[in-house]
Amino acid sequence: AAGIPAKEFVPTQEDYVKIYNEVAKRLVEFDEYDDGSYGPVLVRLAWHASGTYDVETKTGGSNGATMRFQPESDHGANAGLKAARDFLEPVKEKFPWVSYSDLWILSGVCALQQMGGPVIPWRPGRSDRDISACTPDGRLPDATKEHKHLRAIFGRMGFNDQEIVALSGAHALGRCHTDRSGFDGPWTFSPTMLTNDYYKLLVGEKWNWKKWNGPAQYEDKTKALMMLPTDMALVKDREFKKWVDKYAKDQDAFFKDFSDVVVKLFELGVPFKQEEKWVFKVVE
Ligand code: DDH
User: Fold this and answer.
1) pLDDT digits (tens, 9 = 90+) for 52-94
2) Do 175 and 63 share a structural domain?
3) Is 48 a catalytic residue?
4) Which residues span the domain enclosing 251?
5) Fewer CB within 10 Å of terminal CB in the chain, N or C?
6) CA of 83 to the centre of ligand 1 (A)
């Protein structure tokens, strides 16, 4: 009636469970994509939304979902992530009250859990910002570089050596695409399951330069798997290697540290009002 303001919809945990379940359902439904899952590219979207954070200026991070806009969507590192954003568009249409920023990160959590990863506690609180909040190009890691670059880039986000190595285990998932990054191939034989195989392969296989016309990358004996120069930096640098050895031997230790560091990554720069983090149940 006139004069009575419409009541604002305040979503509860149950409403976010509906979104988690919808994304999980779509992951099963659209199993023709890539290696059989949108999971890896959803994880990469959540990581690239978060990994722009700069501790000093407190700019970037997942609050804002500024990758919706050019120029950020056109940054070289974000090539191919339109597939993930488009995959989530019908979810946004079904639940218009959720911010893109919360949707992208909750979907990353969903993908990781549904691909056999550890529980990743999550809370809402991100709001979408406009094009003026886009971060400059160059904040995400460059795969052609080495240990110094990794420490500079991840140090800017606020991560130490152990956290850099734990985060990198996400490369158990997904693959490189020649039409996106220029690199080619998956890191493991099970690119839609989160395991500690990335570390096992890093220390257990012999890696040689791939002979091809593409960017410099490594390949294993079978030539089916790959490592980026930045992946190999984790075994070439003694301080990084300590953690690679630990996670190669102990999947539980990897899962625990991975969960902790991903929660930290996904929350960088977000002005939360809510203290409590929720745990979402895996959809069988
Ligand atoms: Fe990554 N990553 N990543 N990555 N990443 C690529 C794919 C995927 C680097 C470069 C690349 C993380 C760290 C690094 C995932 C998750 C994470 C590709 C291939 C390149 C290149 C893209 C393509 O061609 O489609 C570099 C460099 C680093 C680093 O220096 C440490 C981290 C921290 C994560 C994370 O999620 C926490 C995932 C998943 C993929 C697979 C995407 C797909 O479509 O499949």
Assistant:
1) 999 999 999 999 999 999 999 999 999 999 999 999 999 999 9
2) no
3) yes
4) 147-261
5) N
6) 15
**CB-CB contact of 205 with 225 (8 Å):** yes
- Please indicate whether residue 112, judged by its CB atom, sits closer than 6 Å to ligand 1: no
CATH code for position 240: 1.10.420.10
Prior bond of 118 cis (ω within 30°): no
Please tell me the total count of domains within the chain. Answer: 2
120 Cβ below 6 A of ligand 1: no
CA 84, distance to chain mean position in Å, is: 11
Q: Residue 59 forms beta bridges with which residues?
A: 54
Q: In sequence order, what E strands does the chain have? A: 175-176, 185-186, 208-209, 218-219, 226-227
**Is 1 among the domain residues?**
no
Within its chain, how far is the Cα of 165 from the centroid?
Answer: 14
Pairwise CA distance, residues 262 & 79, whole Å: 22
> Residue 41 CA: which ligand 1 atom is closest?
44
